[in-house]
Amino acid sequence: MLLTDKTSARWDGNPFVVRVSTDPDRPEPLRAKEALLLSPTCQTASPGFRAYLNSTDLRLQSSKPEAPVIPLPSSLSYLVDGDIVQIRPLTGDLRVIYRKGSRHNSVIVTRECNNYCLMCSQPPNETDTESASLLWDSIPLMDIDTPGLIFSGGEPSLLGQRFIELIRRAKSFLPHTALHILSNGRLFKYLNFAKDIADVHHPDIVIGIPLYSDVSHEHDEIVQAEGAFDDTVRGILNLARCGVAVELRIVITSMNSASLKRFARFVARNFPFCCNVAFMGLEPVGFAKTNIKSLWVDPVDYESGLNSALCLLEAHNIPASIYNHQLCTLRRDLWRFARQSISDWKNVFLDACQPCAVKHECCGLFSSAAEMHSRAIKTIPA
Q1: Structural domain includes residue 374
Q2: 255/186 same-domain check
Q3: What is the DSSP string of 94-136?
Q4: Domain limits for position 20
């Protein structure tokens, strides 16, 4: 499933977001922030909408509306009521940033970052000035019953107080939505900043922080930032001190796969308060694709160390999970830790997976990993 594509429409204007509607009779006050999706059953461009999405090259039955009519690429024909689309008039870029029916809604807060991780799947952009504003406009358009939302980046905390305001805005408009923030944790070394998050009193918030080694210089080498380990550790401790839930994440590469048990022991001794420790498979996009030859390690080659790490954490009553690993690459006694963690829009299965008896329980593969994956991928019989 594609989340981005281009339309042939171009005009002068700043980027904006709209919620998709298929109802031409929407109350007029709502139309200014919505795009009417035209279809064979809705060919009239009712006035007042911010834009009109023409999915089938229909000839409008009404006069040309004042708002732009945007030809919708077939790749985005899955759009339905309640989805949110980002539109860039000057370039014709369309990006689906929220799908009402999805469990995997992740929004970019900023593309800037103060790390430069060797396996970053979303390489930083130091000139991003739009993401936070577009997210600010998007939050009130999201369905109030959205089960969960991820704030990602870049590094969200670089926005400072603007970041705190985004959390507060999410709490206000989405009071029942679990908020998962992906952050490198470094700026939470400042206790007052960690306290600012706690003071929002969001009812369901978790900050997922990557820690790639228990040895400072190893972590710093992976994230390409001197002093990052010390900053991150202080940040984790400050968040816990303020009562903010923390999830630790470790992407497994050739640089840390041999020390997973040692890492788990470090976590058990220093961060027993963690709500989850996630051992994650590599997603071969962005910098990870560039550095794949030096970073890739087959999960079957670190299975023993992963098992030891998980058993150690379990013995200390610390919740742990395995993300982005296919079940056939894990021993069966580790399946209870495996999660269906790959977002639905970038999730694929190979031919060998189709008849597999446990396909419905497996996370599958990243679409970017279809050509480079574990040698252990196979069909598990019923």
Answers
A1: no
A2: yes
A3: EEEEE-TT-S--EEES-S--S---TT-SS---TT--SHHHHHH
A4: 4-96
- Decide if 238 contacts 230 (C-beta within 8 A): no
Based on the domain organization, do 126 and 61 belong to the same domain?
A: no
Amino acid letter for position 85: V
Q: Quick: pLDDT tens for 114-161.
A: 999 999 998 888 777 789 999 999 999 999 999 999 999 999 999 999
Tokens of 3: 């989340």
Cα-flanking dihedrals φ and ψ of residue 6, to 5°?
A: -120, 150
Distance (Å, whole) CA 15 – CA 280: 34
Question: What's the rounded Cα separation, in Å, for the pair 19 and 39?
Answer: 16
pTM for the whole structure? 0.93
Q: How far apart are CA 3 and CA 87, in angstroms?
A: 12
How many whole angstroms separate alpha carbon 231 and alpha carbon 318?
A: 23
Q: Which of 96, 117, 146 is the last residue of a domain?
A: 96
Residue 380 belongs to a domain: no
311: helix, strand or coil: helix
Residue ranges of alpha helices (H) inside the chain are 28-31, 131-138, 161-173, 191-198, 216-223, 228-241, 260-270, 287-290, 292-295, 303-315
